[in-house]
Amino acid sequence: MSILGTRVVRTEDPRLLTVGGTYVDDVRVPELQTAARVTFVRSPIAHALITGIDVAQARQAPGVVAVLTVADIDDLAPPPPPGEGPPADGGGEAAPLPLGGPWSEPLLAVDRVRYVGEPVAIVISEDSYSGADAAELVSVDYEPLPAVVTIEDALANETRLFPDATSNVAVESGAPAQAGAFADCEVVVERTIMNQRLAPMPMEGRAVAARWADEKLTVWVSTQNAQISRFILAGVFGLDPASIRVVAPDVGGGFGAKIGIDRDGLIVAWAAKHTGRALRWAETRSENLVGMTHGRDQRHVIKIGGSRDGRIQAYRLDVVQNAGAFPRMGGFLPFLTKLMAAGPYDIKHVEAASREVVTNTTPINAYRGAGRPEATAAIERAVDLFAAAIGLDPAEVRRINLLTSDQFPYQSPSGPVYDSGDYVSALDKVLAAAGYQELRAEQARRREREDAVQLGLGLSSYVEITAADADAGETGRLDVHGDGTATVYTGSSAHGQGHHTTWAMLVESELGIPMADVTVVHGDTDLIPLGVGTHASRSLQLGGVAVQRAAWEVKDQARLVAAEMLEASESDLELDTGRGLWQVRGDPGAAKSWAEVATHAGPDGLTASVNHTEGQPTFPFGSHLAVVEVDTDTGKARLIRHVTVDDAGTIVSPAQAEGQRHGGIAQGVAQALLEEMVYDRQGNPQTATLADYAAISAAELPSFELLASETPTTINPLGAKGIGEAGTIGATPAVQNAVVDAVSHLGVRHIDMPATPSRVWAAINGAREGR
Amino acid sequence: MNITVTVNGNQVAAEVADRTLLAHFLRERLNLTATKIGCDTSSCGACTVLLDGQSVKSCTVLAAQADGREVTTIEGLASGPDELHPVQQAFRAEHGLQCGFCTPGMVMAAVSLLAENSAPTEDDVRSALEGNLCRCTGYHNIVRAVLAAAGDGVTQ
User: Fold this and answer.
1) ipTM passes above 0.95
2) How far from A677 is each of A213, A297, A493, CA to CA, in Å?
3) How far apart are the first and last CA of chain B?
4) What is the pLDDT of residues A69-123, one digit of tens each?
5) B91/A contact by beta carbon, under 8 A
6) What is the CATH number of domain B2-76?
7) pTM to 2 decimals?
């Protein structure tokens, strides 16, 4: 029996559990033995002109090696002057600043700052304590400008962030409203909703160590993609990629905010090259919450129409993305939102459009789901609003409108082709397992009794896109050595996803070499120059399949060698994957081990390299049911049950797939109930420490009820789709819908996330007072 | 100032600046890097260690306060290099870790909980771990791991 689909303990864990792994700030190598510390001086003000920077006092402080500002950046091509640089210049595709031109982002602030936390200067010191002291002595003169904080501020265009851009709208695209699209609808509901700003908050913040020696730059970085980081570094520094080594050691979570290497990391690498001193930087959490990119922050206008018997006929989504101070992701996040706008439903007419605006807030980037949770939140709220308007149960409206399994592959009106699915079964499984009818009966009893604590049931049915960049592919190399062990080199870069375990499972399954004898290497560009990395729920279906295909190639090579050794025809040979032995069919007595075959093959053993690409992404789907209790006196909502189907095709490592769902669900619940990055009217972050940012804890969550469902895809040989982001995509609107449902009998139709006690209380009282 | 601390059974004498935090002392002076620093407000628990057997957040304790006392980090938890403590074993068996960054602090907090309450309920575990954040697991398997360790009779 294959090891695939079985529960295994992870090979990563003993190291992480005993010595705590080796994250960037734990790296103790000779090259970094005398490394100095970097401390950032960041803007304390959201929008201002810089009229002077005085570093003289800081330079004299004890333990200080150097204090650097933009004036010291004389060894890089300067950022293109406003209005003159061509878009995305300064490194082509490698430029970290996708829009360039008038929207260019410098490394260190030049003459203005655009968000609290923007890097203005750095202090290099012998230790972090002296660095923190000296940073206080850097004197920056700011001349405040009016702060553009909200989407409304940005669209007003009274203050422009980029004087050489004509407005604060960086990107605008999509379908104009088609006249008459909703004309045939008996019921039309329209509403503006907010998908709030979140902090990705990986437990390990950003961390970089860098060294320039012998004309080679070595950068240790906490990243999801060592190879992309190298590509970016090469572009910024104008260096041959071969003269750069990037190492991603253990990485303490990323969630999309560690794709590549960002501005702050580039500054550290530049400073190491500029000063010739090895440097270390590990940000504090207070830095992380303003300096690392944020996620979400979209305003949606949703419009949904259909017939009174529950058929949805038309849907329109208008997105405004608050991109923060620099449009780093270009139009990309709203693009994904629009792509998945139609959700899992059979809707004849779907329109979506988006604008992306800049504001004096931390730049926005990917965060678990990256545009797709926003799409799902929009349509799932819309479906519930529609259901409430026609007086049907939300489960019934979903069942009426979900695509049926005979409709695949399905051309979505929003663009993509959904590969496979069984959406109605997913919904029905969740309803049955949860005891939906009994829960509704309990809800009715509480409503009848006018209990203070009301019950809410929230549904979400979703389809999402994984490995959206399937054509970028992933690399995998497999070596089988003369001692019978194997080494996998993967371009996919795990930061909690357990690739070491899963890739070893694939090798054991294909070759019969036990997992314990398989070493997996990732995240070192000297060993693996080419790769893409881990994001967009892509790893297994691209990086995993690359390893699988490399195993097939090794098997083909081994067959020739074994045939020679056994003096048999290749076609008579078979690999017994249970024992890891090559044998002549029907004669298991004379068999050759992998050690013997690899030794016979030559001093280098057997090896194969694969760059696996796919022509299409895959489309996981599922349904979530959240059960919440809402205390109508205090407004406090508490999740008491969460039941889900998350169908990601064939499951290779069930324990880890469940782990991905657990973590994803928790982040969805956190967005629905607790978390928000809040700014005041002047653009000051109000949630810039973990004492203020409401990261969710164990005490605020129940155990989750996961149901199994596997509908394989035919896109790749594993039959696997991505599972990294599905939990978040499904859970967020389910919980939000549940909170609204708990108080819907009081007349509440919508509560924006996070559904905090004050918001829920205000909604209840607003409805009671007829507001 | 001069301090003498017993760390994982080994007595260490060192001169430290008064303001040195225990977390930095462990990581930078002793190179015991398993203890992580995840915040600057005593909120996340990644730096949890045992001080005379009680769990503390080592980012909120001065190295000076550990003078003359015993510190246990996760490096000192198992009885041998190839052994796992039952709580470590349970985290592995229940897939109670993903990226691993919160894990040392989480394990030490769990060890401390089980020393105080050898038969916790799920609610007990959840509330005891409230000060230890994890961003990967949704806590589901962490809670299962602690309950499993308790079921195996772990009290130290």
Assistant:
1) yes
2) 40, 9, 28
3) 33
4) 999 998 876 544 433 333 333 223 333 345 678 888 999 999 999 999 999 999 9
5) yes
6) 3.10.20.30
7) 0.96
